Amino acid sequence: MSTPPPPAASSVTPPQQLLRRLDDTDWADGPARHLEHLVEGGCVLHFPDLRFVVHDAERQFLDPRWSDGKSKNISLRAASRLRGAHGSAQELQALAAMIGRFATEAQQLVDRLFPQYRGKLRAGNASLRPFEVATRSSSWRHDDTRLHVDAFPSNPMRGVRLLRVFTNVHPGLQPRQWRVGEPFEAFARRFAPRLRRPLPGSAQLLRLLRVTKSQRTPYDHAMLQLHDLAKADLDYQRDGPQTTVDFLPGSTWVVYSDQVLHAVMGGQHMMEQTFYLHPDDQLVPDTAPLNVLQRVLGRELGVPRRA
Ligand code: SIN
Ligand code: FE
């Protein structure tokens, strides 16, 4: 499959310019940063010196043996329910406390970075990802070593944004190695000619069969296709605009993962906190994938504006 050149390639921001290094060293302390415009512009906010402190007694949790073997992450739901781990009640409590402390610090960080979002961001799961990236085996669709934007077959986002805080907690020197691709609009324009509308009735059927947790909107259908088209296009994976970045142990990064094209090439032991934001609550709603796609495709994508 050949990939057409991006339209107006010369005016498009090169991926390297999407990486922004910031010198914060504390999650909670420090001035309000007001970085909404950067993160909404598709930047990766990289904090090389923002460390999540793993206590000595918690070091033992940096080991895949705590996984229950069913899911690749150990996650803590907002209601303090730990999933994906096994151990004694006492051990699981200590593990939940560690992930919970990260969730608290991630919340403090986003409150400080994005004052405009206060009271509007909704916290989702926090997770510990103890597996070595290279050892994960999966189908091409689940292969996160291929550039993609996050979109989930069973969990329609219906236009809502996915803001993620990641931190590398590897106890040694192993970096989390990412590739970062072109800006979302250039990506959307490149793949737009290959996007197909959903079959009539398919969203209702998927909901009825409980394949999806809520009804997919045409937006979700488009995002899933973008996810799959990018991952399936080996020419694009190899030759598409991209840069690499190493996130060292003791560093943190923040991205809209439904917007930033990303791939993980290596690393082990990372923590992640997901936040949700309605696009109407952005500083510049026009930059939301929903609004970009509606512009690029010239049609509405089934997400009602909020009253
Ligand atoms: C992803 O969202 O693709 C995974 C990122 C990572 O594991 O570093
Ligand atoms: Fe991803």
Ordered list of secondary-structure elements with their pairings:
Layout lengths: L18 E3 L14 H5 L3 E4 L26 E3 L5 E2 L5 H25 L8 E8 L31 E8 L7 E6 L2 H8 L10 H7 L9 H15 L1 H6 L2 E6 L4 E5 L5 E5 L3 E8 L11 H9 L10
Parallel strand pairs: 1-2
Antiparallel strand pairs: 2-9, 3-4, 3-5, 5-11, 6-9, 6-11, 7-8, 7-10
Helix pairs in contact: 3-7
Bound molecules: succinic acid (SIN) and fe (iii) ion.
Query: What is the percentage of strand-forming residues?
Result: 15-25%
Helix vs. strand class: alpha+beta
Mean pLDDT: 94
Report helical residue fraction: 10-25%
Give the number of helices.
Answer: 7
Question: Please, how many domains?
Answer: 1
Biggest sheet layout: 8 strands, mixed
Poorly predicted parts: none
Shape: globular
Computed CA radius of gyration, to the nearest angstrom: 19 Å
Number of separate strands: 11
Order of helices and strands: EHEEEHEEEHHHHEEEEH
Order of strands, main sheet, comes to 1-2-9-6-11-5-3-4
Ligand roster: succinic acid, fe (iii) ion
Distance between the termini: 43 Å
Overview of the structural elements:
This protein has 307 residues and is α+β, with helices and mostly antiparallel strands. It has one domain (37-297). The chain contains seven helices and eleven strands. The chain has helices at residues 36-40, 89-113, 184-191, 202-208, 218-232, 234-239, 289-297; strands spanning 19-21, 44-47, 74-76, 82-83, 122-129, 161-168, 176-181, 242-247, 252-256, 262-266, 270-277. Strands 1-2-9-6-11-5-3-4 form an eight-stranded mixed sheet. A three-stranded antiparallel sheet has the order 8-7-10, with no helix packed on it. Helix 3 packs parallel to helix 7 (289-297). The longest helix has 25 residues, at 89-113. The chain is globular and about 55 Å long. The termini are far apart. The model has no long low-confidence stretch (mean pLDDT 94). The protein binds succinic acid and fe (iii) ion (FE). Succinic acid binds next to strand 10.
